[in-house]
Amino acid sequence: MMHSELFLDVRYYETDQMGIVHHSNYIRYFECGRTDMLRKLGLPIEKIEQTGVMLPVVSVECRYKVPARLGDTLKVVCIIDEVPRARLVIRNEIYNQNDMLVCEGDVVLGFIDASTRRPVRCPAALVDFFEKHLND
């Protein structure tokens, strides 16, 4: 299992008039966590794209538990449990500063050839990378 944590402060513009984080922002938090995780692993998204492969979002699922509010500090947890083949699944959990689960969900990324925009399987070098890190 690969695991990463990122801390974010809720900003005013992410909230509604009641001071509660708008539901669409959790998907952005998932992306911040995913990007941070790959960077920490030494595999920033730009490096992946330089190999001629892009990772579009195929699906997102988000289950809301308790609202996050203006002034909260959120912990965005990203988890990869399996080596990608045709898709990369990232589990996400977001906690507030009181360690309450705010939301959880999954992001599924596909692999496409950057020049043809056609689906491809995960490149062998990436499979090797994830196998190495998942077995550490």
Count of helices? Answer: 3
State the distance separating the first and last CA atoms: 8 Å
Fourth-tier CATH superfamily name = Hotdog Thioesterase
Proportion of beta-strand residues: 25-35%
What is the total tally of β strands? 7
CATH architecture: Roll
Description:
This protein has 136 residues and is of the alpha+beta class. The chain has one domain (2-134): Thiol Ester Dehydrase, Chain A (Roll). It is 24% helix and 35% strand. The chain contains 3 helices and 7 strands. It has helices spanning 25-40, 45-50, 124-134, and strands at residues 2-9, 53-54, 57-64, 73-80, 87-95, 101-110, 112-113. The strands form 2 sheets. A 5-stranded antiparallel sheet has the order 1-4-5-6-3, covered by helices on one side. Strands 2-7 form a two-stranded antiparallel sheet. Strand 4 and strand 5 (87-95) form a beta hairpin. The radius of gyration is 16 Å and the shape is elongated. The mean pLDDT is 95.
List keywords for this structure.
two-stranded antiparallel sheet, single chain, five-stranded antiparallel sheet, Thiol Ester Dehydrase, Chain A, elongated, alpha+beta, 7 strands
